[in-house]
Amino acid sequence: MSIPKNASLILGGTGAVGKSLVRDALSSNAFTRVLTLGRRTVPTDDSFTNTTILEQKTVNFDDVPGSFPDSDLPQVVFCTLATTRALAGSAANFKKIDQQYVLDSARYIHEKAPKDSVTGKSKVHFLYCSSAGANANSFFLYPKTKGETEKALAEIGFERVSIFHPAFLKLVEPRASGHRTAEGLMEKITPLLEFVSERSTTISVPAVAKVMRLVGTSDSAEVEGVKPKRVEVNPISKTNVAWYNNGNIHDIFNHNAKL
């Protein structure tokens, strides 16, 4: 089944990875239309090129059916919606933003997308930026929520789902949401982490964004000669699911940089 790749939808475009992804999607000339859906529009400056193809719509994630477009949604969908327990204010709010908003959006997109007449799967490639250590069976809130979200996305019924597990994100500009305490601590030991193993411990935000775009515009889970860490057909939805770990992201980014 062919998924049109001329347009892309970005959920969570105001976060660190999301903003970098918007910038990359525009400058890559890979798309003729880039649509962002978020609680706020993505602020653009001179570092954003090709902005004539950018469409931005503010939405209410508490009312996805009432605020999302009901037609003409791109079929390559990037999701970088995320928060932290501290920023959310409570565990319940964290799960609402980090999981419910993602899944409500994904299910709506699946419902509205064209379906394959044989399999019933929606002709959508959904790409989700998760986190290293995501595990639905974890005792800890953050990795457990990420792992549960991944599992639910795989079961919705998309043609393809690609999941990314970046490790510690190296920022190139301040977060719109403000500085995170844990990131401040991690920044101090980043040189040590990179000395031990940069490939498995850190990754730059632009690298994650670019690799997500490269995977999103590829017909294959193998990109730049790099195979994902894991590939499976979900037993419930029959969706083709691929997981890319931090090393995979490094390798795809570095191989592409050599071209």
- Between the first and last Cα atoms, what is the distance in angstroms? 29 Å
* Count of helix runs: 8
Q: What share of the residues does DSSP label as strand, in percent? A: 15-25%
Q: Overall 3D geometry?
A: globular
| Rg for CA atoms | 17 Å
Reading side by side through the largest sheet, how are the strands ordered?
3-2-1-4-5-6-10-9
Q: Classify the helix fraction into a percent range.
A: 25-40%
Q: Mind summarizing the main beta sheet?
A: 8 strands, mixed
Q: How many runs of DSSP E, i.e. beta strands? A: 10
| Stretches with pLDDT under 50, minimum 5 residues | none
Instruction: Report the average pLDDT across residues.
Output: 92
> Helix and strand string, N-terminal first?
EHEEHEHHEHEEHEHEEH
Structural class: alpha/beta
3D architecture notes:
With 259 residues, the chain is of the alpha/beta class. The protein is built from eight helices and ten strands. The chain is globular, with a radius of gyration of 17 Å. The two termini are 29 Å apart.
Strands, helices and their partners?
Layout: E1 7-11, H1 16-27, E2 33-38, E3 54-58, H2 64-67, E4 76-79, H3 85-88, H4 91-112, E5 122-129, H5 141-156, E6 158-165, E7 168-170, H6 181-201, E8 202-204, H7 205-216, E9 230-233, E10 240-245, H8 246-257
Task: Fill in the keyword field for this structure.
single chain, 259 residues, alpha/beta, eight-stranded mixed sheet, two-stranded parallel sheet
